[in-house]
Every structure is written in structure tokens, then in C-alpha cells.
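Hi, here's the filled form for the chain we discussed.

Project: internal
Contact: R.S.
Residues: 155
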Amino acid sequence: MIIGAILCSVCICILAILSGVHGFAYSTADSILQQDMPSANTGKSGNPLYLIFDANGATIGFLIVMYVCVAIYSCTWGTLGWIYPAELYSQGVRAKALGISTASNWLFTYAVLQLTPIMLQKIYWRTYVLFSAMCLVIAIIVHWQFPETSGKSLE
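And the returned structure, exactly as it came back:
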């Protein structure tokens, strides 16, 4: 868990550097549609953000690092909501622990998905700095607060 958090932090820090140095722009779907078709009127507000890229090396590097970060997250933190509670709790409370961890996973994922577009519009590349710092904070919390489960029986 700690290695996954640190690797995710490094990847997200690289994303912050690339985004800050090269000034990638963010735009809403409405503005993209108006550029392509000036008469288009979707009538919707709050459309998702689109990251506007060109085809230079920094853009390709950004996308590669983003995919690496997603792969690291998927292999380390993505499965923890199902694995860790099953190892930590006894059979009697395991189902409730898995339910709570799954519900909190969905809740926090929803919060991140709702807040990230707003953060990208308001604080730009600093969004990645915040996420990178949070990964380091969670690595410290895991080191001090999460018990080790290797070598212990499941029952």
C-alpha cells in the first residue's frame, strides 16, 4: 500500500510539472462545440471538462504518465477495498466490513469525480499537486495506522 501511494504520488507530481510548465488548457464541451460549430446550442450547463492537447512530446508524455499512474493505482490501491478488510476482520464481521469499505470507496470516488473538474477550472495544475500531496499523506497514515496482515490467519 505504501509503495503504491508513493508511486502514484510521483506520477501525479510529474503530471503537475508537465501541466504547469506546458500550460495544458481545459475547456467545457460547450466552448468546444461553439468553436467547431458556432450555431450549436446544447442548452446544458455543467458539462464535463475536456483536456485540450496538441501532439507534441509533452502531451504524449503526459498521457503515458497518466496511464502508468492508473495502472499503478489499479494494481495497488484499486483492489484494497476487497482484499484488506477480508484479511483484517473475522468471519463474523467480514461482510459488514466489506460493505462499509465498498460504500466508502464509491462515496470517495464520486466526490473526486465531482470535485476534480471544478478544481481543474479554478486551480489548474495545482490540482495535481494536491492529489500528489494526498498520496504522500496516505502513505504516512498507512505506515503508522494500518496493521500488517502477513503471517496472520484469516480466521
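Let me know if anything looks off before we file it.
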